[in-house]
Design goal:
Helix 3 packs across helix 7 and helix 4 packs across helix 6. The protein folds into two domains: 242 residues, no CATH class; 125 residues, Chitinase A, domain 3. The strands form three sheets. The chain has a four-stranded antiparallel beta sheet with strand order 6-5-8-7. The chain has a three-stranded antiparallel beta sheet with strand order 4-3-9. It has a two-stranded antiparallel ribbon with strand order 1-2. The protein is built from 16 helices and nine strands. The chain starts with 11 loop residues before the first helix and ends with a helix. The chain has 420 residues and is α+β, with helices and mostly antiparallel strands.
Length: 420
């Protein structure tokens, strides 16, 4: 098995083209001067004559697109690149959603086949989502109602304001239920097409990825640290914590600027002057550690990056992202529980604490297998969608979609995965 992936989790983006479920409903006859029923995507000769299912109207497309833009406060004028990306995303979501619904229907998976428990979960989730949105309009609702109102009146006003917001995109609150229903159909389809996926296949896939990670560590360190650290922990890796006594931010910036310009002599001059001002604090911290105070206590008092207190990070024997002085300090500690001498960096003085050996835990290995199965299951479903689109290609109206001609040409699942 030879797959180029960042990680099992990250690779879900290779199949994310169909992960979200989208639809829209509208009462408007025109949006932006465009007939809402105008098709923006269609399959000319779909299976079983299902032109209705495989025809995507402008209202469907605009509803999803405008809702995304409006809820984020984006505009086409100020966020042109994002708007273009979202246009592309939405039409792909919609086109492939129709295929999912069709393939699921052929496999006997429809809303009518949901269990009572599944139906209740959907209704509960929809209510939670709608209530959350309504709550975001509370201040405006109170402003409109005045000083006297009941809880029911308040909620109704919130819902009215939220509904007005949805209506700008031609949507209603029913869209939340549609998303949940179609999401469950998608999950059931993935389960159905991957039911024959063996444990041996999953294990082989995970092991193959682990072997790739080992190779990357030895031969392509930057890629390993960017994409493969979840799959392999090199021998000798350590979990560490730190106490960092920082110099002032102005000096940090000046040192970085001189380093960038290649003037290390000036950088060292600025750094040493700044370090002299904070040296007493790192000496105090080191003295307290030597006198038996706990690492936790001293770290809490002296570490200037307090968000790292109590947090381990992994140091590998070699790295492109962790500075050499940190690696040397971490690897020079003789035993677990120990700490390094006082070291300096361009940010200040630091002490490293060796909290334990880094290794893949049993829990993490189990999680890798779970993620591996999930990835392969998604890939199975995605391949079926790709195969369907090769047989029944969509015809797009690029002008109505506001996209470049040919930008939605089909790519294979393998190409999508490699591209990631």
């Amino acid at each position: 098995m030879n797959k180029t992936i960042k990680s099992i989790t990250a690779s879900f983006t290779a199949t994310a083209i169909f992960i979200a479920s989208f639809t829209a409903c509208t009462k408007k006859e025109e949006i932006n001067g465009i007939d809402t029923s105008a098709p923006v995507a269609r399959i000319e000769n779909p299976p079983n004559g299902r032109k209705d299912l495989f025809t995507i109207k402008y209202s469907d497309f605009f509803g999803e697109y405008n809702f995304f833009m409006a809820r984020g406060g984006y505009t086409e004028e100020n966020d042109a690149e994002l708007a273009l990306t979202q246009r592309d995303n939405v039409i792909k979501y919609l086109a492939q959603e129709r295929i999912i619904l069709y393939l699921a229907e052929q496999a006997g998976i429809t809303e009518e086949t949901f269990t009572e428990e599944e139906k209740k979960t959907i209704e509960d989730t929809v209510k939670e989502n709608v209530d959350s949105w309504c709550n975001s309009y509370r201040a405006d609702a109170i402003s409109e109602l005045g000083e006297t109102y009941t809880e029911e009146e308040l909620y109704n006003k919130e819902f009215e304001l939220f509904s007005d917001f949805l209506a700008e995109s031609g949507l209603t609150a029913d869209i939340f239920r549609t998303w949940e229903v179609n999401g469950l159909i998608r999950e059931k389809l993935i389960a159905a097409v991957s039911e024959d996926l063996s444990e041996e296949t999953v294990t082989a896939f995970v092991q193959d990825t682990v072997e790739q990670a080992k190779d990357k560590y030895e031969n392509d360190l930057a890629t390993f640290e960017k994409s493969y650290t979840a799959f392999y922990v090199p021998k000798g890796s350590r979990r560490v914590q730190q106490i960092l006594v920082k110099i002032d931010e102005t000096s940090i910036s000046e040192v970085a600027a001189y380093r960038k310009d290649g003037d290390d002599e000036k950088a060292e001059e600025v750094l040493n002057a700044a370090l002299e001002k904070v040296k007493y604090r790192i000496n105090e911290a080191y003295s307290k550690l030597q006198n038996g105070e706990s690492w936790e206590t001293v770290q809490a008092e002296y570490n200037d990056e307090t968000d790292t207190n109590g947090t381990d990070y992994t140091v590998y024997p070699k790295s492109t992202t962790v500075k050499a002085e940190v690696i040397n300090a971490a690897m020079g500690i003789s035993e677990i529980g120990g700490y390094s001498d006082i070291c300096k960096s361009d940010s200040g003085y630091f002490i490293i604490h060796y909290s334990g050996d880094a290794e893949l835990s049993e829990e993490r290995i189990e999680e890798l297998h779970r993620q591996g199965r999930e990835f392969l299951a998604n890939e199975e479903a995605y391949n079926k969608i790709t195969s369907f689109m090769e047989t029944y290609p969509y015809i797009y109206d690029y002008e109505l979609l506001g996209l470049e001609e040919g930008s939605l040409e089909l790519t294979s699942a393998a190409e999508q995965t490699t591209a990631q």
